[in-house]
Specification:
mainly alpha; Proton glutamate symport protein; two-stranded antiparallel ribbon
């Protein structure tokens, strides 16, 4: 049976949302109920469904990823791989932070925040109270929150830093449990991750309806001018992704891995196109491994370790996107974030990118964590959905390419002779 791809469904929903917003007005009613209320209901329902997935999705994704690191293989290969992933993700986040601070997509042409244009309803003064007044002590508080006194309380209160730290430890030490107990734990968390990925895919089936409700409400209340700052946000994210993909990655290939960057792009083209079309690094993983092993000449020993782990914990494009999205929303509210708050965004983006499963639009879940941590309302995520699908395709391609660069770089550092050696 023929079924439209999700991105086409979202595109069609976007068109209908624009038409509905233009044709109707804030006083329009449906069966005696305000149209604005109906749209707000379905938009909130979709956002709540996304937030519902946060705790089990992040925990199972991190734990399963860490289970791949066996104690006997966590030597030189493991440390090099983890160092690469942490370094490139941090570079991507800092690059995104630099670009968003330079272009300032949340500030309009008149120098005013675009809050009123894109329909953000929370009171700016209330948001300012949550964000301002942060000092250097908040940096220490970030690390204190990483070690929660009660993991159940942390989950209930949405303290994701503590959950992420606990999940990293829990997943690693599962690999040290031998025999049936260890197998049972591994099967449980792998099964839970499979369930959560299916649930996330199921929730994303309703994304067209969520996009329709959220976008139609904005246009209904604010008009078509709401799209201008979102277009600028799109350009900002895309510019940062392009810089990371075509400047940072080739430099690593050329000077660290010592391979020809252009040849590596050619070798990885099938995986990149698949990643772009599916928006899923997990779904692309088999093809990524084939390209890295058969076309780039990396051994299975290295690719079998770095690529499955990278599909879970190495999300350069996603980390960059999370940082830019949070900064865009802060700018839209007219907030001037100090070094401490921006450092918090960088740190949380780095940590949450580890726990974002390689499935379409899962980064939206991680963005809610960043916004909540720095005191910004999560409702603005609904507006990002307007341009999220295309950006999701782009950042997934960046994620997959970074995984492949990791495999080649680690292989060369381990003394392997790949097909692409300079």
């Amino acid at each position: 049976m023929f079924r439209l791809a999700l991105h086409w469904q979202i595109f069609i929903a976007l068109i209908f949302a624009v038409l509905t917003g233009v044709a109707a007005n804030p006083e329009t009613t449906v069966f005696g109920v305000s149209l604005v209320s109906v749209l707000a209901f379905f938009g909130t329902l979709f956002l709540n469904a996304l937030k519902m997935l946060i705790v089990p999705l992040i925990m199972s994704s991190i734990i399963v990823g860490m289970m791949e690191i066996q104690p006997e293989t966590l030597g030189r290969l493991g440390y090099k791989t983890l160092l690469y992933y942490a370094t490139t993700s941090l570079i991507a986040i800092l690059l995104g932070l630099m670009v968003v601070n330079m272009l300032q997509p949340g500030i309009g042409e008149d120098g005013e925040p675009v809050k009123s244009i894109i329909g953000l309803s929370s009171d700016t003064d209330q948001v300012m109270e949550k964000v301002e007044g942060r000092g250097t002590g908040d940096i220490a508080e970030v690390f204190i929150r990483m070690v929660p006194a009660n993991i159940v309380t942390a989950a209930a209160e949405g303290q994701m830093l503590g959950l992420i730290f606990f999940s990293l430890l829990f997943g690693f030490f599962i690999s040290r449990v031998k025999g049936q107990p260890g197998d049972t734990l591994k099967n449980f968390w792998s099964g839970l991750l499979d369930v959560m990925m299916q649930m996330t895919n199921w929730v994303m089936m309703f994304a067209p309806y969520g996009v329709f409700a959220l976008v139609a409400k904005v246009i209904l209340m604010s008009g078509l001018e709401a799209f201008e700052p979102l277009a600028f946000f799109f350009i900002t994210v895309l510019s940062a992704l392009v810089l990371h993909l075509f400047v940072v990655m080739p430099l690593i290939l050329k000077f660290v891995a010592r391979v020809q960057p252009f040849e590596h792009y050619k070798a990885m083209m099938p995986a990149l196109l698949t990643a772009f079309s599916t928006s899923s690094s997990s779904a692309t993983l088999p093809l990524t491994m084939e390209c890295v092993e058969e076309r780039a000449g990396v051994s299975n020993k290295v690719s079998g370790f770095t690529l499955p782990l990278g599909a879970t914990v190495n999300m350069d494009g996603t980390a960059l996107y999370e940082c830019v999205a949070a900064m865009f929303i802060a700018q839209a509210y007219g907030l001037s974030l100090d070094f401490t708050t921006q450092f918090t965004i960088v740190l949380i983006a780095l940590l949450t990118s580890i726990g974002v499963a390689g499935i379409p639009s899962a980064s939206l879940v991680a963005i809610t964590i960043i916004l909540a941590a720095i005191g910004l309302p999560v409702e603005a995520i609904g507006l990002i959905l307007v341009v999220d699908r295309v950006l999701d395709m782009c950042r997934t391609a960046v994620n997959v390419f970074s995984d492949s660069v990791a495999a080649v770089t680690i292989a060369r550092l381990e003394g392997e002779k790949t097909n692409l050696a300079a």
